[in-house]
Amino acid sequence: MLRRAPLERKDAGRLKPAPDGRGSLRILKGIINLLKGTYHGQIVIINQNYRIVQVERKENFNPEELQDPVPGFSGDLSRPEQIEKRISEALEGLEFGQVILIVKKGQLAQIERLEKVRLADVQGLGGDGI
């Protein structure tokens, strides 16, 4: 089970490990472990205030292709630091939003970044916030 590690905001909005120096690295290693067990699906990394607050894994199964055992990740994980670097780059400067790792047939197919921007001065039709 992944534990939430405290991360601090740095000047340019980068994720910075907490004072123990192990927080973000431990989370990235856990994400790589989740990736190893995924054949068809996605891993969603949710960020709030420049901190990873939740990691979700969604696995999709085609009933006609179910095998015993169900295959796992077949991509090249001989150098996981490359994938960790790409994930870190996607998370960099992300105050609110998600980074989504899409896995198809055991291969990391794409990395998506969804950024949410909070607008403090915007009001709804009734004068309240959105």
Describe what you observe in this structure.
The chain is of the alpha+beta class and 130 residues long. The protein has one domain. 20% of the residues lie in helices and 32% in strands. It has helices at 23-36, 80-91; strands at 7-9, 15-17, 41-48, 51-59, 96-104, 107-115. A four-stranded antiparallel β-sheet has the order 4-3-5-6, covered by helices on one side. Strand 1 (7-9) and strand 2 form a beta hairpin.
Show the helix and strand layout:
Elements: E1 7-9, E2 15-17, H1 23-36, E3 41-48, E4 51-59, H2 80-91, E5 96-104, E6 107-115
Antiparallel strand pairs: 1-2, 3-4, 3-5, 5-6
Strand content: 25-35%
Major sheet summary line: 4 strands, antiparallel
Structural class: alpha+beta
Can you give the helix content as a percent range? 10-25%
Bulk shape: globular
- SSE arrangement, N to C: EEHEEHEE
Annotation field: number of helices: 2
Total domains, how many? Answer: 1
Mean pLDDT: 78
Measured distance between first and last alpha carbons: 35 Å
Q: Detail the poorly predicted runs.
A: 1-14, 16-22
Spatial order of strands in the largest sheet = 4-3-5-6
What are the main properties of this structure?
single chain; 130 residues; alpha+beta; 4-stranded antiparallel beta sheet; 6 strands; 32% strand
Task: Write a compact overview of the structure shown.
With 130 residues, the protein is an alpha+beta fold. It has helices at residues 23-36, 80-91, and strands at residues 7-9, 15-17, 41-48, 51-59, 96-104, 107-115.
